[in-house]
Write a structure and sequence with these properties.
Blueprint (H helix, E strand, L loop, with lengths): L1 H27 L2 E9 L6 E4 L4 E4 L16 E8 L11 E10 L3 H5 L4 E14 L3 E12 L2 H23 L4 E16 L2 E18 L5 H11 L3 E8 L4 H25 L3 E14 L4 E3 L2 E2 L14 E14 L3
Parallel strand pairs: 3-5
Antiparallel strand pairs: 1-2, 1-4, 2-3, 4-5, 6-14, 7-9, 7-10, 8-9, 10-12, 10-13, 11-14
Helix pairs in contact: 3-4
């Protein structure tokens, strides 16, 4: 019985010694890091940035309640590198701090003294050929009676629609954009207003993918009885590629500005911290003025011109400025 107790005590002593050795080995592998606290590019993460390296603080949440825990604070951390750690953050060496405290050491204060953040804007304009024409054609009729104005308008509008469909082809879109039947009033001093007639108006919007047919559509509509063009515009339906090119050029312009600032300070751009799309102005329709339409005898010349797509980008970078 005594022998068994002695053996148990010996085993416990061995285990204690082994635990002590393991703890000592772990402490021996600890690393001391001195730098400044900084945000990761992805929201929620924290780095300790030194002059040579960035360390991703795996257990930053443990120290977040400290009043001194904020970006730019010079700190000293003691802990272990964790290269096997799996994290969603894409920068810095994974590091688990056993202790983390602020420091006022002059060396720590100077570690990032040459680093600064700069926010710049970049913009770009890209031109593109329009691929869609939008024509609004109207038929306006008037008569002494509402019925006559309405019936005459219906007859002429039907003729205009059939004529436009014939020349525009199956790929065109034709839809009614507005209809009105209103009295014409005669206003005289000291006399109640009187109705002198009625005006009927029917407008259709014609959307064309074939821009070469725009002039012919206007001509045939006039021959069929249309007497007003409300608007003629050109736009770009398939604009994804052009928008992407405008954004790319804007981002490149922003980076060029940042690099120019860095060079003027005798340094270089270390990394891009944040990029925000300021917006892309979609191709603005190019309009012709509305006009009345007498009977067409010559073909109507149409020149679509080019559209402009404008994009802006705001970029924040970190610059190493050498004194």
């Amino acid at each position: 019985m005594i022998q068994e107790a002695m053996r148990l005590l010996a085993r416990l002593a061995q285990m204690s010694a082994l635990s002590f050795l393991l703890a000592a080995a772990a402490l021996a592998q600890e690393t001391t890091v001195r730098g400044k606290l900084a945000h990761t590019v992805e929201p929620g993460g924290w780095l300790i940035v030194t002059a040579q390296q960035k360390f991703l603080l795996l257990n930053a949440q443990r120290f977040r309640s400290e009043t001194w825990f904020r970006e730019g604070t010079a700190v000293e951390a003691v802990g272990q590198l964790r290269p096997d750690a799996i994290t969603t953050f894409q920068e810095g060496l994974p590091f688990e701090a056993r202790t983390l405290k602020p420091t006022t050491d002059s060396d720590s204060r100077d570690l990032l003294s040459g680093f600064t953040r700069v926010t710049v804007n970049g913009d770009a304009t890209v031109q593109a050929q329009p691929d869609t024409a939008i024509v609004t054609i109207a038929v306006v009729t008037q008569s002494k009676s509402a019925l006559e104005a309405q019936q005459e308008n219906a007859r002429r509008s039907d003729a205009v629609q059939r004529a436009v469909e014939a020349v525009a082809g199956p790929g065109a879109e034709i839809k009614t954009s507005g209809y009105s039947l209103q009295p014409q009033m005669d206003y005289r001093p000291n006399v109640p207003p009187t109705i002198t007639g009625y005006v009927a108006r029917n407008a259709v919007v014609v959307t064309l993918n074939d821009l070469t047919k725009v002039g012919a559509v206007i001509d045939e509509a006039a021959r069929a009885g249309a007497n007003n063009i409300d608007s003629l515009s050109f736009t770009l339906r398939q604009d994804r590629e052009v928008r992407a090119r405008a954004l790319s050029d804007a981002a490149r312009a922003a980076l060029d500005k940042a690099q120019a600032i860095a060079r003027s300070l005798g340094g270089r751009v270390i990394r891009i911290l944040e990029v925000e799309e300021g917006g892309v102005v979609r191709p603005l329709p190019r309009y012709e003025l509305s006009r009345s339409m007498p009977a067409a005898e010559a073909s109507t010349p149409i020149e679509p011109g080019r559209l402009e797509i404008y994009a802006t980008v705001q970029m924040t970078v970190e610059i190493e400025a050498r004194p």
